[in-house]
Structures are given as structure tokens and as C-alpha cells.
Predict the 3D structure of the following.
Amino acid sequence: MSKKKTRIYWANALFSEADREFNEKCAVILRDAGYSVFLPQETPMTFETAPTNEEIFRVDTEEIVKADILVACIDQFPIDSGVACEIGVAYASGKLIIGFYTDIRGHREGPGRMYKNQYVMGAIEAGGQIVSGIDELLQILDKK
């Protein structure tokens, strides 16, 4: 699969300024590397209109189905419910799923470790893998 034809759906929370800036930063890096990225926060309906639940579900689901890969940011605790749903749609659609987990607590042992829902993590691991940063993500994508 060539980079120019690889479509990535970027799944992450988008409601805080910090999340939107992080999403945009990662999308720019991926696009500069030659990948096509769908970033839900860039759709006009996200901020310019008051979309219905059905409209958001329809547009985002269509984009997941069109994508080759779903990159799911799973740093939040708990994993953002929309991201968890997007992971489920991607898994059911047979898409490659890459969990993007940058939280340093993911590498800890014992009580300081960040818990993640095992069902959601299972969906990621069954259809892909988990990376801990943008450089590792690019290495994995470049091998696809």
C-alpha cells in the first residue's frame, strides 16, 4: 500500500483546545509524511453547525469505512467513548487499528499503572497494535 493511497482515520477526543492542537500536530506530521488523514475536527459540521447525533455518526462511520487504518488515541482515562465506538466500527469493518498511547503511566507496574478497558484494548490488539509516539507510528505505517 503506497503512502499516497493510505487513508488514516484519526480517532481522538476533540473537545478541548489541547486535544485539538495535539490532533492537528499529529495530522500535519502524517500528511507531511505522505498520508491522507481524516480528522473529524476539520469537518465544517463540528464547529460551524449544530449537527445531530445521527449526522455525526453517519459522517464519521462513512470515513472509518473508507479509511485503510484507524489510529485511535487512547491516552484519556477512561478511553473517550467516541474513540471506543470508532475502534469497534473499525474492528467490525476489518480495518487495521493502531492504538496511540503516549501516557507514561502505560509503562508502569502496579498501582501507578493506567488501567484501560480490556475489551477495547482487545479490539485494538486483535486488529493491530499499540504504539507510544508519533515516531513509532510512522515506522509502523511505513512498513504497511
Notes: The beta strands are 7-11, 36-38, 69-73, 96-100, 128-131. The chain has one domain: 3-143. The mean pLDDT is 90.
